[in-house]
Amino acid sequence: MAEWIRVYASRLDCSGPNLFWAVPPTEGLIWSLREMGQLEPVLVRARAAQDVQDIHAALGGGYVLLSGYQRVAALAVEGREIVAGCLSGSGSALEDGLIYLHANLHRPLNESMRIKALRYFQPLLSQEELAWRIAVPLGLPPRSGAWRKYLDWLALPASWDDLLHRGNIPLAAGTTLAGLGQGEQEALWPYFSAWKWSQSRAVQWLAMLKEVALQRGWSVNEILEAASAPMVLQTDLAPQDALQRLASQTRSLRYPHLERMERRFAALARELFGASRWEITPSQHFESDTVELRLRAQSPEALQTAAHALDQALRMGSKADSPKKSLAGLFRIGWEEEEQSGP
Predict the structure, then answer these.
(1) How far apart are CA 193 and CA 17, in angstroms?
(2) Is residue 288 one of the residues assigned to a domain?
(3) Are 32 and 97 in the same domain?
(4) What is the CATH number of the domain that holds 77?
(5) Would you say 250 and 211 are in contact if contact means Cβ atoms under 8 Å apart?
(6) Residue 12 burial by CB count (10 A; 0-12/13-18/19+): exposed, middle or buried?
(7) Residue 83 domain-assigned?
(8) Three-state SS at 156
(9) Which of 111, 212, 108, 90 is nearest to 154 (CA)?
């Protein structure tokens, strides 16, 4: 049971790791405390007598803050007394962490905040205990796919948490990263540190790296070198352009035949249609002998120009000295590549 006390911030130890979501007070909270005073008490624990004697000179008092960091920080600036509920007993790291967690259930949570809480409780609880004592307060159904992603992330070194907090890397990337060795994780660190990755782009790139490693028996470091990834890091490309180049160069290692077919198709389409407004695309992965033509015209004149370009392409294709250079060549690239590659 708590005893109500008044105490100055100078007598509170606010450095405990159990305050894992501690942030400076907002301007709104500072204004509210000035206008209305402290409406809700903070929660503290009295230190044992022997502990107070040892640390009093360094920390200024015999109380440890359990919850209410922002209110304490704001009132400390004003030099005002703080109303606190004081718990007796020495407590424990687990108990103090649970008190802080449950006292802050009203706060909106993001992935980074959940990871901070889980890092605190991870050495104190088994994985099963984390699921039923911590996952639910964090808004995560135990045994769900979302919970599994957090557990995968916890297998990474804590240094990766800063990239998650900055928004450089999505939580979902942790599943693949956690399966890599320390050296491979360190090799990938600069690429996630340099740019902000969307979830789809990060997951796809890591998946391609893993597939190339299995396909060719290469390490992640060897794949990065083969994809000229270090050179991309050194360029002054815009972030999206750099990420696109990384993905493209890695993709060419994963699907060398597909990359070659796409280059042939794009070159022939440019030769036949020039700089017209027609957008010509093959079927996905050249799985069928179909070609799609798309056009966006904003005037009758643009439509006439596009129709003329299409007519020119038909005429050029009919005069080509080789089927590979005609319109028919656009439809033949897939099976020609298959014939050249063999069974």
Answers:
(1) 26
(2) yes
(3) yes
(4) 3.90.1530
(5) no
(6) buried
(7) yes
(8) coil
(9) 111
DSSP 77-97: HHT--EEEEEE-S---HHHHH
CA distance 111 to 248: 29
Domain of residue 53: give its range.
Answer: 3-103
The H-or-E segment that residue 134 falls in is none
Distances in Å between the Cα of 327 and the Cα atoms of 219, 270, 286, 311, 343 are 42, 11, 16, 11, 27
Q: Are both 244 and 272 inside the same structural domain?
A: no
Residue 238 lies in a domain: yes
User: Is residue 150 a contact partner of residue 114, using CB atoms and an 8 Å limit?
Assistant: yes
Number of domains in the chain: 3
- How many Å apart are CA 340 and CA 343, to the nearest integer? 9
pLDDT at 245: 93
| pLDDT the model gives residue 155 | 97
Among 222, 254, 286, the domain boundary falls at 254
The alpha-carbon radius of gyration of the chain (Å, integer) is 31
Q: Find out whether 6 and 84 touch, Cβ atoms under 8 Å.
A: yes
Distance of CA 84 to the CA centre of its chain: 38
119 within domain boundaries: no
Could you say which of 228, 254, 280 is where a domain stops? Answer: 254
Q: Which residues contact 338 (CB under 8 A, 6 or more apart)?
A: none
| pLDDT bucket at 56, cuts 50 / 70 / 90 | very low
Buried b (16+ CB within 10 A) or exposed e, 200-216: ebbbebbebbbebbeee
Give residue-wise pLDDT tens across range 97-135.
999 999 999 999 999 999 999 999 999 999 999 999 999
Buried b (16+ CB within 10 A) or exposed e, 232-244: bbeeeeeeeebbe
The alpha helices in the chain, defined as continuous H runs, are 27-36, 49-59, 69-78, 93-103, 111-121, 127-130, 145-154, 161-166, 174-177, 182-194, 199-216, 220-226, 229-234, 239-254, 256-273, 300-319, 327-341
CA distance 213 to 111: 29
